[in-house]
């Protein structure tokens, strides 16, 4: 009878080396992929207004900017099942008036944008409007429009209002539709300021 082959050190697979377990990580830089330890600094100061010449985050100085009338509109879309959509439309959701609560949440969030987004300026908002429309039987569009007279725009205030209003719709309805989605969060238009007006689909 033949004897089983001995399991000596030469026949056992060797343990993977530390280099195999932790291969070098490639990182994208301004000049292409390099190994860690040779990362070239990215010069973003000329592209991002919230970055200084050393690449550090900063709050933009708006002291010398002219005061002008500012406006911005943003939107978000809530996709839900048909039963939930009907409950929202009929104001029969378990938690109550979904759209009324979402409207108040969006307005309140716009007024506190500078507390949520670190480098935003506090602005004296003159009006915040949050509106709702049905794109079809299961897709609810949330639109937020913000106005102020100031030295910087209100795009972030409009985006925060639309987002928080949509999140509130989700919160009010999640017990009946855990698969609900928030889609298409985007700036629709803005006006005022030195960079001029923006209208999605025309100048983007």
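^ structure tokens above, recovered residues below v
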């Amino acid at each position: 009878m033949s004897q089983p082959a001995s399991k000596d050190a030469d026949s056992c697979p060797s343990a993977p080396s530390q280099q195999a377990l932790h291969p070098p990580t490639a990182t994208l830089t301004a000049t292409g992929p390099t190994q860690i330890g040779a990362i070239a600094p990215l010069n973003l100061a000329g592209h991002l207004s919230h970055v200084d010449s050393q690449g550090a985050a900063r709050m933009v100085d708006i002291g010398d900017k002219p005061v002008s009338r500012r406006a911005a509109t943003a939107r978000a879309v809530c996709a839900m099942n048909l039963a939930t959509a009907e409950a929202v439309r009929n104001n029969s959701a378990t938690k109550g008036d979904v759209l009324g609560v979402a409207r108040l949440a969006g307005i309140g969030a716009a007024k506190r944008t500078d507390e949520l987004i670190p480098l935003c300026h506090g602005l004296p908002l003159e009006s915040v409007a949050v509106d709702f429309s049905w794109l079809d039987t299961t897709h609810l569009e949330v639109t937020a429009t913000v106005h102020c007279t100031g030295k910087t725009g209100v795009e972030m205030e409009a985006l925060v209002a639309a987002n928080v209003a949509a999140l509130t719709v989700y919160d009010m309805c999640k017990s009946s539709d855990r698969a609900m989605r928030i889609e298409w969060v985007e700036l629709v238009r803005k006006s005022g300021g030195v960079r001029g007006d923006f209208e999605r689909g025309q100048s983007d």
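The helical segments are 18-21, 82-89, 98-110, 113-116, 155-173.
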